[in-house]
């Protein structure tokens, strides 16, 4: 389908988007990470800019080629702690925050100054992980009046009703304005162009359900954001 014409419905709105997946280092060359490519967040940032928004895009380990030429302020980060710092600073200036990034829930308790050597480890290696701050929960707790906050929940649950229940529990815990539930699996959702979503309100209502390209999903989410701002 042809991309919709820029509507200008976000003109002058300051939008902060996070994209990609954080990497949690445990030595200078190794990390614990996830498979998020950043494409869905980039699609949201690009569409917001096309609608007239001033966009800040915090990218966690996103291929720089994917954001080249976009009319957005790109701020690359690596770990969840770095993402948290960048988002805390930028959120103070944002009318809308869309947390698309896959933020690691845990990071290695210890970051070794030198490469771990297997001779010193033996046949098994145990990494102790500690909890990262929940950035979305912080944003919701510190939300300014009128600020719109959107969370994304990647869920592997294949059953739609069960997936929506997981989303309801999540938005009840962290009452963002909208929660986009995104079905992911070994071969869906990540590193691909197609995405399937259900969008929930804090009350647990499904206000939008669609599947399509990440650009189509971005447009659907920003339609809801524009409505919420109006
Ligand atoms: N998120 C965050 N900070 C974290 C973890 C998650 O800001 N430390 C945000 C994500 O960017 C996303 C939302 O919270 O917008 C939901 O993330 P998700 O991993 O689906 O939910 P969790 O609350 O972490 O629950 P769980 O992973 O146990 O399902
Ligand atoms: Ca998580």
Describe the protein's architecture and organization.
In the N-terminal section; belongs to the HFCD (homo-oligomeric flavin containing Cys decarboxylase) superfamily. The chain contains five helices and twelve strands. The protein is of the alpha/beta class and 230 residues long. The strands form three sheets. It has an eight-stranded mixed β-sheet, with helices on both faces. A two-stranded antiparallel sheet has the order 2-3. The mean pLDDT is 94. Cytidine-5'-triphosphate (CTP) binds next to helix 3 and strand 9.
Question: How do the strands and helices of this protein lay out in sequence?
Answer:
Blueprint: E1 14-20, E2 24-27, E3 30-32, H1 39-50, E4 54-60, E5 73-77, H2 80-91, E6 96-99, E7 106-108, E8 129-131, H3 135-141, E9 148-155, H4 160-173, E10 178-183, E11 194-200, E12 206-213, H5 214-229
Parallel strand pairs: 1-4, 1-6, 4-5, 6-9, 9-10
Antiparallel strand pairs: 2-3, 7-8, 10-11, 11-12
Helix pairs in contact: 1-5
The structure holds cytidine-5'-triphosphate and calcium ion (CA).
Q: How many strands?
A: 12
* Largest β-sheet summary: 8 strands, mixed
Helix-strand pattern: EEEHEEHEEEHEHEEEH
Which bin fits the share of residues in helices? 25-40%
Number of helices: 5
**Would you identify the regions where 5 or more consecutive residues have pLDDT less than 50?**
none
Gyration radius, rounded: 18 Å
Widest sheet: strand order?
Answer: 5-4-1-6-9-10-11-12
What compounds sit in this structure? cytidine-5'-triphosphate, calcium ion
* Alpha-carbon distance between the two ends: 27 Å
As a percent range, the share of strand residues is 25-35%
- The computed structural class is alpha/beta
GO molecular function, one term: phosphopantothenate--cysteine ligase activity
Catalytic activity: (R)-4'-phosphopantothenate + L-cysteine + CTP = N-[(R)-4-phosphopantothenoyl]-L-cysteine + CMP + diphosphate + H(+); N-[(R)-4-phosphopantothenoyl]-L-cysteine + H(+) = (R)-4'-phosphopantetheine + CO2
Pathway: Cofactor biosynthesis; coenzyme A biosynthesis; CoA from (R)-pantothenate: step 3/5; Cofactor biosynthesis; coenzyme A biosynthesis; CoA from (R)-pantothenate: step 2/5
Organism: Curtobacterium luteum
């Amino acid at each position: 389908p042809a991309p919709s014409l820029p509507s200008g419905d976000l003109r002058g709105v300051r939008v902060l988007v996070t994209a990609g997946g954080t990497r949690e280092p445990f030595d200078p060359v190794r990390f614990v990470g996830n498979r998020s490519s950043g494409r869905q967040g980039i699609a949201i940032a690009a569409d917001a800019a096309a609608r007239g928004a001033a966009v800040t895009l915090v990218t966690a380990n996103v291929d720089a080629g994917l954001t080249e030429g976009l009319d957005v302020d790109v701020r690359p980060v690596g770990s969840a702690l770095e993402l948290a710092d960048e988002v805390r600073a930028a959120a103070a200036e944002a009318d809308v925050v869309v947390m698309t990034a896959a933020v690691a829930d845990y990071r290695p308790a210890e970051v070794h100054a030198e490469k771990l050597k297997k001779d010193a480890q033996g046949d098994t290696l145990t990494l102790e992980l500690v909890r990262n701050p929940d950035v979305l929960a912080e944003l919701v707790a510190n939300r300014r009046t009128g600020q719109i906050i959107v969370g994304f929940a990647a869920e592997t649950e294949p059953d739609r009703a069960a997936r929506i229940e997981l989303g309801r529990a999540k938005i009840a815990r962290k009452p963002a304005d909208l929660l986009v539930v995104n079905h992911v699996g070994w071969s869906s959702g990540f590193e691909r162009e197609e995405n399937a979503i259900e969008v929930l309100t804090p009350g647990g209502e499904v206000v939008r359900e669609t599947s399509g390209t990440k650009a189509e999903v971005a447009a659907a989410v920003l339609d809801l954001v524009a409505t919420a701002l109006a």
